Amino acid sequence: LTDVSFGMDGVGGSKFDYYICDNLLEGKATWPTTDSSVWDFEGIVVVGQGHVVCYNTLSGFGDALSLHHDTAIPNRAIDFYGNEILWTGDNGIELDFTERNVRAFRNRFSNGGNHSMSFQPIWGGPAYAIRNVIYNSKTAPYKFNNEPSGIYLLHNTAVRPGWAWEQLDFTATNFIFRNNIFIGTTDGANVTTEISLADIDYDGWLPDGQFRFTDLWTSFADLQATSPYEHNGRLLNGLPFATSVTIPASPTTLIAPLDARLKADTNALDAGTPLPNINDGWLGASPDLGAIERGSSTPTYGVRPE
């Protein structure tokens, strides 16, 4: 489907067990339009339980993948995986209004008009984001607005100009970060959101600078020494990728998807912690940070060849 306002809307029929895979969808939005005029252009929307949305390639929508915001219908047991999101006007995926056991894993998001992954809100969850690759989000890779609770952020790789992660205002509770890579160009984290029951550790960050998780720390060393966070995390020793990566000066620059495979001399190798059923079978002394374990097979993103 090309030049459409809506790609596939799974709201009007059954609320159970859709299989939506291997579709090429191109919306009406034009790059780099990211204002509210394109926010209602939807790629694939589902609601209910038991759906699988996999190996689709999307561009030109406000929101490429999302759950419908019908709060009368619980969103449970839904998987989004292997999707290639080339660019969006608003969010790459909206896991908003997850009730429990909704997973986004092994997807690749490029050129996020505002955020690549949205969690606003999560109603207890868990909502899982696992081994996703995020490149060039305009505002931030992750959005935790509207009081989400119950998020697992595990083994993701996010690269953008500016702050590695910025999250402003609201409240967020009961979330766990493990084995992620956060890369920016100016500073670490600027999270003014009031957070509680937040378990943030074993992640890799670049560059050094300020780190705010409600309270402010002046450097990564200060964060490790005097905060509850990242006691086992690390400051990365440069861009960790085997393929050369140039981070654009502005997120309005349209870039190709990121090859997130790791190089041999990065300190992201063997820097993670074991997570049963998530990173079993790692190849070194410990799991690597980020979306792709060095030496493992490269994931497939987007429409699969016949």
Notes on the structure:
The protein is built from one helix and 25 strands. It has one helix spanning 220-226, and strands at 6-9, 19-21, 24-26, 42-46, 52-54, 57-67, 75-81, 84-94, 98-105, 108-110, 115-118, 123-130, 133-135, 140-143, 149-154, 157-159, 165-167, 171-178, 181-183, 189-191, 194-201, 204-206, 211-213, 215-217, 234-235. It starts with 5 loop residues before the first strand and ends in a 71-residue tail after the last strand. 2% of the residues lie in helices and 40% in strands. With 306 residues, the chain is mainly β. Strands 1, 3, 4, 6, 8, 10, 11, 13, 14, 16, 19, 22 and 25 form a 13-stranded parallel beta sheet that branches. A hairpin with a 1-residue loop joins strand 23 (211-213) and strand 24 (215-217).
* Rg over CA atoms: 18 Å
Portion in helices: under 10%
Q: What is the molecular shape?
A: globular
Q: How many DSSP-defined strands?
A: 25
Number of helices: 1
**Helix/strand order:** EEEEEEEEEEEEEEEEEEEEEEEEHE
Strand content: 35-45%
Low-pLDDT ranges: none
Overall pLDDT level = 95
End-to-end distance: 18 Å
Largest sheet: 13 strands, parallel
Structural class: mainly beta
